[in-house]
Fold this sequence. Notes:
Layout: E1 9-12, E2 15-18, E3 22-23, H1 39-51, E4 56-58, H2 67-76, E5 84-89, E6 91-93, E7 99-101, H3 105-119, E8 124-130, H4 144-155, E9 159-165, H5 169-176, E10 181-185, H6 196-204, E11 208-209, H7 224-233, H8 237-248, H9 261-268, H10 277-284
Helix pairs in contact: 1-2, 3-4, 7-8
The structure holds NADP nicotinamide-adenine-dinucleotide phosphate (NAP).
Amino acid sequence: MSSNDKSGTFQLGNFNLSRLGYGAMQLAGPGVFGPPKDPGAARAVLRQAVTSGVNHIDTADFYGPHITNQIIREALHPYPTGLVIVTKVGARRGADASWAPAFSPEDLTQAVHDNLRNLGVDVLDVVNLRAMFDVHHPAEGSLEAALTVLADLQRKGLVRHIGLSNVTAKQIADGRRICEIVCVQNYYNLAHRTDDALIDELAAQGIAYVPFFPLGGFTPLQSSTLSDVARGLDATPMQVALAWLLRRSQNILLIPGTSSVAHLRENLAASQLTLARQTLEQLNGIAP
Length: 288
Ligand SMILES: NC(=O)c1ccc[n+]([C@@H]2O[C@H](COP(=O)([O-])OP(=O)(O)OC[C@H]3O[C@@H](n4cnc5c(N)ncnc54)[C@H](OP(=O)(O)O)[C@@H]3O)[C@@H](O)[C@H]2O)c1
C-alpha cells in the first residue's frame, strides 16, 4: 500500500484490502456499453491505480459487456500479488444497452465462466450477486436459488468469496443462511443515505459495505455545503465526499469510478483529508 494512503485496511474474507479502491465501470463506452473512445487511456488509469497502491478493483462482465474485464486483463495481467478483483453476476445486456436479470442457473454459471475467461484467472476473488427485482433500488424477492448456484460454484473452487448487491437487510439475513456473505454493494453516498442503519448492522457483523455511486454516479454530487467545506479545506468536493465516507464507518470500502488519471489521483488523495467534528456535522446536514 502507498504510504500516502491513510484510509486503513479491512479484512474481507482472506483478503486485506486498502479501504480506498477503484471501480472500473467508467472504463467502458458511453452508457457502460461498447468500447471506450481511448482504450489506451483506460489501461493507463488501471495501471496508475495499482501503481498508487490500490489493491481492490470492482468490475462486472456486463460492463461493455466483456470489454471492461478484457481491458483489466490487458492492463494488469499477470496480476500483482495481493490485487483483489471483485465482480458481479445477475445481469445481462441487451443489444440496445438495456440491463436485464440473468438469474437462471445457466445464466449464473455462464457469467462466472465469462468472468474467469475475460479476466484470465482460474478462480474469482469475490463475486457479488446483483439483485435485479428492481434495477435501480433494492426490492424484496428470494435470492435463495441464485445464491445456492453460486455457493455450489464456490464449493467447486471457481469462486473464493460471495457478496450481494442492490439488496435489502432481509435478503442479506436470508443469504447468510446459505453461504458466507463477505460484502454488500448498494447505492449510498453523502446525499443518499437510505442504508444508514444497514451499514451499522453490517459493521457489527464484520461485513464490508461498498457503496456504489460514492460520488453520485451518473449525476455527480452537487451541494453548496459540500463546495463550501471543500473550499475551506483546500480540497475538491469529490475528495470531501470520499473522506466523509471513510469516516462514516470502518467497514466502508470505496470504489470511486473514473476514466481519468487526474481524477484517480485526486480521489486517492482523499484519504489524507481530516474532517473536524464541526465539518462532519455540516456534511451530515446535506442528506434530506
Ligand atoms: N452494484 C451496482 O449495481 C453498481 C452500480 C453502479 C456502479 N457500481 C460500481 O461502483 C463504482 C463506482 O460507481 P460509478 O463509477 O458509477 O460512480 P461514482 O464513482 O459515484 O462517480 C463516477 C463519476 O464521477 C466522475 N468523477 C470521478 N472522480 C472525479 C473527480 N475527482 N472529479 C470530478 N469527477 C469525478 C466520473 O467521471 P470521469 O470519468 O470523468 O472521472 C464519473 O462520471 C463503479 O465503477 C462500479 O464498479 C456498481
